[in-house]
């Protein structure tokens, strides 16, 4: 109990920690509660726009050449984390609201457009962290791949978006779905693995 209390006090007193060279943090006027930022490495950049709401968000950049951009009025309204482990860009668009999401990026990029709505328990991962080799050729079989989420996309609770996934405008990803491929514009995908279950739809807040 005492250890947990001391940890909370430490996080409150030291919410931003950096080490390394040529790291940049630019933050506009934001509404923050429980925001933690850690940068360990070189040539990393964080740009946070104005009027973002950042509640219980843990940002962790390790390694080199990471860029994180949160556009104006992007919101994290529940426990979330952004982890970048090198050679990665994560960009989140204007007025996108996220209740709870774990974003893990390495050696590839993750882009989320404007006016998206994310529920809780969501995972975005563009890599497998560990490498898988062909034992004959020694070639890598599981290369990281970008994740692209366009504008006005609704992602329901506990969905998982994996490397190589592209979700186009005005689409919906169902609860507990696992997305590994392309979701066309104005479509609903659901299931594991996720499949198109409805097209020619749109949604509103």
Note down, in words, how this protein is organized.
The chain has 205 residues and is mostly beta strands. It has a single domain, classed as UDP N-Acetylglucosamine Acyltransferase, domain 1, CATH 2.160.10.10. It is built from one helix and 25 strands. The chain has a nine-stranded mixed beta sheet, with no helix packed on it. It has an eight-stranded parallel beta sheet with strand order 1-4-7-10-13-16-19-22, with no helix packed on it. Strand 24 and strand 25 (195-199) form a beta hairpin. The longest helix has 12 residues, at 2-13. It starts with a helix and ends in a 6-residue tail after the last strand. The mean pLDDT is 93.
How would you summarize the topology of this molecule?
Blueprint: H1 2-13, E1 16-19, E2 24-27, E3 31-33, E4 36-40, E5 45-48, E6 53-55, E7 57-62, E8 66-70, E9 75-76, E10 80-84, E11 88-92, E12 97-98, E13 101-105, E14 109-112, E15 117-118, E16 122-125, E17 147-149, E18 154-155, E19 160-162, E20 166-167, E21 172-173, E22 178-179, E23 182-183, E24 187-190, E25 195-199
Parallel strand pairs: 1-4, 2-5, 3-6, 4-7, 5-8, 6-9, 7-10, 8-11, 9-12, 10-13, 11-14, 12-15, 13-16, 14-17, 15-18, 16-19, 17-20, 18-21, 19-22, 20-23, 21-24
Antiparallel strand pairs: 24-25
Number of helices in the DSSP assignment: 1
Task: Note the beta-strand portion.
Answer: 35-45%
Structural class: mainly beta
End-to-end Cα distance, whole Å, is 41 Å
Quick tags:
205 residues, UDP N-Acetylglucosamine Acyltransferase, domain 1, nine-stranded mixed sheet, eight-stranded parallel sheet, 6% helix, 43% strand, globular
């Amino acid at each position: 109990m005492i250890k947990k209390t001391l940890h909370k006090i430490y996080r409150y007193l030291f919410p931003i920690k950096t080490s390394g060279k040529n790291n940049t943090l630019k933050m506009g006027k934001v509404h923050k509660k429980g925001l933690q930022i850690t940068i360990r490495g070189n040539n990393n950049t964080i740009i946070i726009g104005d009027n973002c709401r950042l509640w219980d968000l843990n940002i962790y950049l390790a390694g080199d050449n990471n860029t994180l951009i949160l556009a104006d009025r992007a919101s994290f309204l529940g426990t979330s984390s952004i982890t970048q482990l090198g050679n990665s860009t994560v960009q989140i668009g204007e007025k996108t609201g996220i209740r709870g999401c774990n974003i893990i990026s390495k050696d590839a990029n993750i882009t989320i457009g404007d006016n998206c709505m994310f529920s809780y328990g969501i995972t975005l991962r563009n890599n497998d962290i560990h490498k898988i080799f062909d034992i004959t050729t020694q070639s890598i079989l599981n290369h990281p791949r970008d994740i692209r989420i366009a504008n006005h996309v609704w992602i329901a609770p506990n969905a998982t978006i994996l490397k190589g996934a592209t979700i186009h405008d005005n689409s919906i990803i169902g609860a507990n779905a696992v997305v590994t491929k392309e979701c066309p514009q104005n479509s609903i995908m659901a299931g594991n693995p996720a499949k198109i279950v409805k097209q020619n739809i749109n949604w509103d807040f």
